[in-house]
């Protein structure tokens, strides 16, 4: 059946979702992380998304602020903090956290 929403009635080609997009769809609901993936491969795909959503600026963050920002996504802030540091996405020194990677380019 032709698609009336496209000119000429042809069906628009669908773009395939990337692995990261699939994982984000599976683990996020209404901008909240419903659970932390148990599989490291899925967790590794989500951590850059969490980093960019919670820590948009390349600056120092005190641990209290890190906890508050992560709590907006998921209650287990200690696990998320640990995964971000262990995954080398953030650095931690004397209770101060900082992005270890620049922001992803939009697109």
**Discrete helix count:** 4
Low-confidence stretches: none
- Give the H and E element order: HEEHEHHEE
Radius of gyration: 18 Å
Structural domain count: 1
Query: How many E strands?
Result: 5
How would the global form be characterised? Answer: elongated
Question: In a nutshell, what does this entry contain?
Answer:
With about 110 residues, this protein is α+β, with helices and mostly antiparallel strands. The protein has one domain.
Any overview of this molecule?
It is a single chain. By secondary structure, this protein is α+β, with helices and mostly antiparallel strands. The chain has one domain (17-99). The chain has 4 helices and 5 strands. The chain has helices at residues 19-27, 40-54, 63-71, 77-86, and strands spanning 28-29, 32-33, 60-62, 90-93, 96-99. Strands 3-5-4 form a 3-stranded antiparallel sheet. Strands 1-2 form a two-stranded antiparallel ribbon. A hairpin with a 2-residue loop joins β4 (90-93) and β5 (96-99). The model has no long low-confidence stretch (mean pLDDT 88).
């Amino acid at each position: 059946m032709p698609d009336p929403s496209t000119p000429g009635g042809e069906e628009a080609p669908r773009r395939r979702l990337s692995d990261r997009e699939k994982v984000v769809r599976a683990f996020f609901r209404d901008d909240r992380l419903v659970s932390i993936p148990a599989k490291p491969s899925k967790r590794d795909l989500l951590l850059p998304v969490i980093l960019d959503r919670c820590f948009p600026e390349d600056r120092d963050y005190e641990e209290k602020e890190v906890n508050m920002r992560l709590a907006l996504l998921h209650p287990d802030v200690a696990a998320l903090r640990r995964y971000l540091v262990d995954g080398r996405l953030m650095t931690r020194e004397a209770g101060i956290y900082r992005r270890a990677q620049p922001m992803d380019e939009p697109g």
